[in-house]
Amino acid sequence: MGLMRMAARTAVVAGTATAVSGRVAHRQASKYDAQAQAQYDQQQAEAQEVAPADDQMAQLQNLAQLHSQGILSDEEFAAAKAKALGI
Prior knowledge:
This protein is mostly helical. It has one domain. Helices cover about 90% and strands about 0% of the residues. The chain is rod-shaped, with a radius of gyration of 32 Å.
């Protein structure tokens, strides 16, 4: 009778250890997924901030080139520059 009790106890302990280990692994995986998602979201936000600045710079360079070629007057250039900068 003692041998059956010891075998049953061992099975319960092993099962509990497996369940706890699985839960811990699941929590860690969820935590790492959340961190990876947060990092990805931050990178995307930074990329979106850089893109408009690059686009704005290209637009200003184009306006400066048109101004230097005499296509835009000083007043037109200043108005277009203010519009491009959102002023």
